Amino acid sequence: MRMFLFAFLPIFVSSAAFAVAVDLTEPAFIQADKIEYDLKSETIKTTGKTEVTNKSGQKMTLTDSYMNRKGTDLSGNDIEIWLGPHVYLESDNITRDGDITIAKDAMFTACKNCDSFGDAWDITSKKVKHNLEERMLKFYNMVFWTYDIPVMWLPYFAMPDPGVKHKTGFLMPNLESTNKMGTQINVPFYVYMSDTNDATFTFSYLTQENPLFQLEHRLNGPHSEFRTRASFTHNREGENRWHIFNDDIIELGDNARATVFLARASDRTYLQKYGFYNEQPYFDSGGKIELFGQSGYVVADAHIFQDLRTPGRNHAVPDGNILPNVRGIYQTAPMFASTYATFMGDILGISGDKASTQRIIGEARITSPWTIWGGNRLTASIATRYDLYNFNKTVMTDGDVYSGLKNRFLPSGYLEWGLPLFRPGKNWNQVIEPRARLTVMRHIKDSQFAQNNDSVGALLSDATLFSNNRFSGLDLWENGTFADYGLRWSAFSAKGKTIEAFVGQTYDFTKREDTDKNSGFRNGQSDYVGRIGYTQRWFNIYSRFRLAQENLALRHAETNFVLGNSRNFVNVGHIWSRQFYDAQTMAETIHEYAGGVGLQITDRWSVRWTAVYNATNEKFQRHTGTIFYEHPCYYLSFGYRRDNAVKADYVGDTTFQFRFGISVDGQHY
Fold first, then answer.
1. Distance (Å, rounded) from C-alpha 252 to C-alpha 299?
2. In what helix (H) or strand (E) does residue 439 lie, and over which residues does it extend?
3. What does the pLDDT average to over 25-30?
4. Is this prediction's pTM over 0.85?
5. What is the mean pLDDT of residues 233-257?
6. Ramachandran area for residue 141 (φ above 0: left; ψ -120 to 50: alpha; else beta)
7. In the prediction, which pLDDT does 158 show?
8. 485 with 472: CB under 8 angstroms?
9. Residues 122, 123, 126, 132: is their CA dihedral positive or negative?
């Protein structure tokens, strides 16, 4: 006998309390050997094997069942419930009273028929209790099985039912070794506060050090996002060691945005020693407010730095805190033809060790681009700038300590020419473009007043040619007349392949102030700079280089190579620079490789490996490797990290990490 019952869908959805949420207005199908319906009590009684199916595909089979109209009462034997494609519950007997459903001698799995050779995992239990209000599955006297092999017994175990997206409770622990602190056992506890607000607390037990406490908090507002990560420990030496990272973004309407950022640690080596592996030279904390307009932009930001580098090394930045920095740019509509004006204002305050500097800069520029006969492109620009500085016990470029005001008036202008020549072809289209710019700037004696403001130094590259400011920051003035010139060639095919090559140089007509000999700038002709690259769908290589002006010897090269896709790839980055000095390296050359390999062995097995190799010292700075297994019903990974860094009380070591968890309908536990 078969009956179609459209009114009784709530019976299945409510009584099968483990089910994920579905539309209660969908029709249901009930099939049984015998069905009796009592109109007075609004109950259904079935005899023999009974099957209930709803439109979403959820299915329940049972024997000799009883159900009431509202689904608040249910009983039956030999019950099997399919809650999803692989989520399955079976029980010898199930009863329901109100919000409480009890299944006896039950088996639950979220991996039914995932593999042809058996279920990856299932849980058998003498009793499974479900509270509809709490949305929790509670297992009593349970055994956890993996491919029909018993691996763990627990007197009690609880987990959210498959319909729950978020639930407060413990997450799956994971294991890792530490940097000379023994084995670390991480026990995370998830706290659900709302759909937009949650947190994870992690207690970490270390076998050779005191416990570590970690926190990660996430909050999403209608127009905001808040993220916080922190940790704390009181070690066996009696020291309090900690860190906190915070990043907040607040949208203040369509034309404004506020950003707050905080990065702080108790000391220089805490993050590395406790496995957070942060290798920044310094931390930056502060805030920023941005105002957007159709033709203008204003940003006000403040920065407080924490130096993480070893004292006594040659550091260029940061030296002091930035309180504040306000910068605004406004561009007018075309005044005539395509000619427009740009106005810029900049306010900067730097406070350091018993010294401070305040700076105000204002600039007005008129730019006029033209396209004339033969496709020639001309751009003319003139600008005037005024700087006012207030120094307080500031070290100047001559080494003296100075307090007082200094100012300078800085007019400039440039004329730029370019001629792009296009050549179509059957398979490739080509563009070749010669380009030149002549810049005239006021020549002054003091191209920079103080040693440690926002201008760190100068480094010639293809990116600095044809720019209004070839140096970093605004304190260092270009100073004089110079010309930039270069040639760019590119080709692109209909199949998405592109090739690009560029080479250029700058020429200083005015004798330069003292500049780092390794920068590439010279009196007269500079070094040659360029780039070359090739791109297609699965292959990409790009290289930037600098060649010595006198003999074309290679002075600097940066190359990045990518082969493959997101699943299978090889990525290699390479940098080589001769006689280049930066804040961290005092060597004649820098020679370093960085890269990674990813291999998707099967749909479920994959491996990843990354490394940084210092070819100058002929040793790895660090390398990591991880093997992943992603099953529809569980996941696991095992990886290592080798860190060869030596810094203060930190000496790098090899560490390992193991993670395992189960999955229910794509959610990890």
1. 14
2. strand 428-441
3. 53
4. no
5. 95
6. left
7. 82
8. no
9. negative
